[in-house]
Specification:
heterodimer; A: mainly alpha; Rna Polymerase Sigma Factor, Chain: A; Arc Repressor Mutant, subunit A; 2 domains; 8 helices; 67% helix; 0% strand; globular; B: alpha+beta; Phosphorylase Kinase, domain 1; rod-shaped
Chain lengths: 174, 251
Amino acid sequence: MADADFARIALPHLDAAYTLARWLVRERAAAEDVVQEAMLRALTYFASYRGDDPRAWLLRIVRNTAYDRLARTRDAREEPLDAQGAHGHLADPGRGPEGEYAASEASRRLREALATLPVELRECIVLRELEEMSYRDIARITGVPVGTVMSRLFRGRQLLVRLGQTAGAKESLP
Amino acid sequence: MTHSVAACEEMRLLIQADLDRELDAAATAVLTAHVQDCPACAALQRDLGDLSGRLRGALMAERAPAALRAALEAKLIPAPVIPLRPARTRLLALTAFGAGAAIAAAIALAVIPARHDDGLAELVAGHVRALQPGHLTDVVSSDQHTVKPWFDGRIDYAPPVVDFAAQGFVLVGGRLDYIGGRPVAALVYRKDKHPIDLFVWPGQGNAAPETSGRDGYAVVGWSGEGMVFRAVSDLNGPELAAFAALWRRRP
C-alpha cells in the first residue's frame, strides 16, 4: 500500500507544489511538467522519506526538478545570481503567474517585480511570504545554510522595496 | 544618536528576522532599543513590513489544474475496492467457525455492513451531487465516439461507451467522479425523464447484475470485460436491471 500512503502524504500539497513550480519555471505547461516529474521522483524517493514535514520534503523535490529543467532549457530570462548580489538591472519578467490574476495594478506590478528577481532570491521570497515557511525549512528546500537564506531574503526584499519606490516616484511626476 | 555603519548592517538581518517571527526575546530587545533611536533602521523596518504586507496581498496560492490533479490521482491512488454485496457471504464464513467465532461475528456484524453501506453511499452521493443543476455532465454528447475519447488523458483506462437509445436508454454524456478516493468514469444516460449514472472502473471478475438500493435510489452492479459497473438511478429496480441486462447482452 505504499502508493496509498504516498498519495495521502503528497497529494494534499499539490497546490503548493504547483504554485512553487509556477514561480520557478513561469509557464503553466512547464510548471505542470515539473510537478508531474517531481511527483514521480518523490514516489521513487518515498522509501527514504522519514516522516518529517511532508510539504517541505515535497517542495524540495519540486524545487530540484525545476532547477534541472531551468538548467536544461537555459531559459534566457534567468540570469545567474552574481556573488555580490548587486543585480542592478532587471530581467524580462516573462509570462509567469502574475499574468493571470485580475487584481489591483499595484499588486500586478509587485508580482512582475518579483518575477524579475534571480530565481535564488525569488524562491526564498515565495517560500517565506506565500508558503509562510521557516528559515530552517527554506534552507532545507533550497539546500543552502540558514544564513544564506537570510541574506538572500534580505537582498530580494531590498530590490523589491527599491523597485516599488522607483515606480512610485515615476507615477508622482506631472 | 547616530550608529556605526557596522552596527546598522548587523541590525538589518535582525529587523528581517523580527518581521519573519524568527527572533528570540533577547535579540528582540536589542533590536527595539536600536530602532528607537536610529531613523535609518526604523525606516527599513517600516519598508520591509510594508513590503511584506503588500506581498501577502499580491501573492496567492495557485490551484493545480484539474487535469494535472486527475492524472496524478489516477497514477498514484490504487483502484477502489467497492464491494456491492460481499458482506453476507463474509459473515456466513465467519459464523461457520462456530461458537468460538461468536465475538468475531459480532464485530463483523457491526463493522462489515457499515463498510458495505459506504460503497453504496458513495455511489448514491456521487449521483445526487451530479443532479445539482449543471453538474451532471462534463462532456455533453449522445455520440459514443465523442464521449469515449473525452476520457483519454483524464483517467488511465478506457471505459466502454455504448448508446442504447433504441431501447430507451439515451446516452447524454459523461463526467469524472470520485469514488473510493480516485477519479472514475461516469457515463450519463436518460430513460424518459430519469437520469442514470453508470460508474465504470477497471476490475476483475465476471458477476451477473445484482440490484440493491439506498435512500430511494436503485443501484445495480455487475462486472465483466475487465471492468466493474455500478448503475445508480431513481428508476425502479427492475427498470435499472433491464439497463444492466442490455449491457450484458450487447454484442
